[in-house]
Amino acid sequence: MSKSGKSRTQDPLCFCEYDDVTGNRSHIMACCCDCEAVDNFCDKCLTCQSIPDETVERVFETIEDRCRLPWLSGAKRIPLDVAFPIILIPCGLLVATNGYLSTMFVFVSFPVLLLAFYRNWSRQRRKTRTRVFYVWGLVSVIQLYYVYITIVVGFREILLWETMLLTTLFFGMLFAFYYAKNDPGVIASSTSPDDGGLRLSLEGKTLADLDEDEKSEVLERRRHRKSQAIPEYEVTWVDSRAIKEGRLEIWCNFCLVDKPPRSGHCPLCNVCIRLRDHHCVWIDACIGRSNHYAFLAALVLCIVTGLYGAHLTMTTICTPEMYLDWFLWPADCRFVYGDFPTALSFVSACYAYIAVTGLSMILLQQVLLISQNLTLQELAHARRRGLTRFLFYARNNVNNRGFWRNWLDFFGGTRREKYLQTSAVV
Fold first, then answer.
1. Are 241 and 250 in contact (CB under 8 A)?
2. How far is CA 133 from CA 113, 129, 140, in A?
3. How far apart are CA 388 and CA 411, in angstroms?
């Protein structure tokens, strides 16, 4: 099915053709032809042989190269970590409409398939970051809202103001997540609190990119900062920075910048973040000083939107009962698989309830941490040093100013970025 390659100026690509990784012209209908890497992968799976990382990498490269969308100037490649959730979620929900057993099978398979994809994706040497979790979440919320608007509203049981309220919550949630993906508070190279008179702007360069003068200046700064590092036995407080070689690490060897108190380096974003909490794979961004409150607002809106939408769906497709003269509760759901629209609405509501349960656990974790004026990175280092009790409570947290004051500092953006009053290092 493949053709010998010609230049695009001599023979333009049609909307279903593309140039593959070997430089030859191919057609999207030939996506299943000459799959040597995939055949080798399947043979090893069937014979229970170990699969080398090189084979997994070639399989992903082959599948991604042939995952194409017809376009005017030639078929466009769709990244595999984007195509995977877009295909799997709608198809899975359709399969789940066949009955209770199918629903249970699909909902159990979703996390298994997602983790299996991520595990094999991470085995690729050139792939260190994936958008599969982010696209999974985005496709899920769009799919659930689409089912509600196109099917559930069509049953004519929901009032106009209820749909308008849910739509407002939905777009408010999307805006909050969009805002949470903005700059989390990246540390620039020229903002070190005490660099011994050195003022070098690296602008994202690595040590290999610097000339001799710049490299010597960076190495001098690193020696100067390491000389200020505090010995491990003196670090009695909870700190966000690691302890290496018996000293508190206050210099980042990856970003070539100082690591101020309560900061952390993200290996996925490859930057250092002020007041770093964690890297959230569901929005594919770090959570830090500048976007933490937006992340918390997005979590709350997502939970409220999911619960409200699922409740409206269930009280529409199931026989409801009235409680306290104002609250409807779905009482009889025996016939939800009687027809396809009802079954799809029921399955979508169940999917929303499952997602809300997971998000509620994340929200609970955030509430416990913010109530102590503690970040997730600080908690992780405290656990390694044996400074935690009851999983989420950290001892020797010098920034814990009490429940109400911690929340006021969080929403007011006045959380302290130091551990001791007398030193710029801590």
1. yes
2. 12, 11, 10
3. 25
Rounded CA gap, 185 and 66, in Å?
A: 38
The enclosing H or E element of 105 equals helix 100-121
Identify the CA nearest to 277 among candidates 290, 346, 246, 245.
290
Residue 302 designated active-site: no
Element of type H or E holding 176: helix 160-180
Alpha-carbon separation of residue 78 from 70, 82, 83, 117, 128 (angstroms): 10, 7, 6, 16, 18
Residue 63's identity, in one-letter code, is I
Q: Is the whole-model pTM more than 0.85?
A: no
Q: What are phi and psi of 231, to 5 degrees?
A: -60, 155
Cβ–Cβ under 8 Å, residues 130 and 269: no
Tokens standing for residue 47: 């014979």
Q: Name the residue type at position 7.
A: S
By three-state DSSP, how is residue 367 classified? helix
Rounded to a whole number of angstroms, the CA Rg of the chain reads: 26
Amino acid at 61: E
Cβ atoms 56, 123 nearer than 8 A: yes
pLDDT in tens, 241-267: 888 888 888 888 788 788 889 999 998
The answer to whether residue 424 scores a pLDDT higher than 60 is no
Closest CA to 282 of 105, 118, 123, 87: 118
Q: Which of 67, 280, 302, 350 is catalytic?
A: 280
Inter-residue contact 310 to 147 (CB < 8 Å): no
Which H or E run includes 221? helix 212-228
Amino acid identity of residue 140, one-letter, is: S
